[in-house]
Amino acid sequence: MKLDDKLFLVRFNTDKLSHIKINDPEVCLKQCQDKPCTRICPAHVYDWDEEEKRISVGYEGCLECGTCLIGCPFGNINWNYPRGGFGVSWKNG
Ligand code: SF4
Ligand code: SF4
């Protein structure tokens, strides 16, 4: 089964509060040239907003895989599991 097909089976119970925060937006702007978070997240949660000059975080689609925590070279992502009852639920394993 392809990844896109698997993602189709994923269900979310979205919290109003984001479980992901950028610690220091200035680091993204001035120090992080490559912005790997915009490429490594399988759910495309992170996007560079050229107008606002900051990373936008679409936390609602987070798959809770933890990749961004390892992939941010500046440790600039404050990630916690969503509150109980919220977040992703997987079907068929
Ligand atoms: Fe900011 Fe980290 Fe993303 Fe770089 S990888 S843009 S420091 S959150
Ligand atoms: Fe994306 Fe995984 Fe980080 Fe969620 S935990 S934002 S899915 S890389």
From TrEMBL:
The UniProt record lists the keyword Transport: yes
Query: Mind telling me which Pfam families this protein's record contains?
Result: Fer4_ETF_QO (PF05187)
Alphabetized InterPro entries for the sequence: 4Fe4S_Fe-S-bd (IPR017896), 4Fe4S_Fe_S_CS (IPR017900), ETF-QO/FixX_C (IPR007859), Fd_FixX (IPR012206)
Gene Ontology molecular function: any one:
iron-sulfur cluster binding
Q: Where is the 4Fe-4S ferredoxin-type domain?
A: 18-51, 53-82
Question: Which key words tag this protein in UniProt?
Answer: Electron transport, Iron, Iron-sulfur, Metal-binding, Nitrogen fixation, Transport
- Domain of life according to the entry: Bacteria
Provide the function of this protein.
Answer: Could be a 3Fe-4S cluster-containing protein.
Q: Which family does it belong to?
A: To ferredoxins from P.putida and C.tartarivorum, ferredoxin I from A.vinelandii, ferredoxin II from D.desulfuricans.
PANTHER family attached here? FERREDOXIN-LIKE, FERREDOXIN-LIKE PROTEIN YDIT
Name of the protein described by the UniProt record:
Ferredoxin-like protein
Recorded source organism is Desulfosporosinus metallidurans
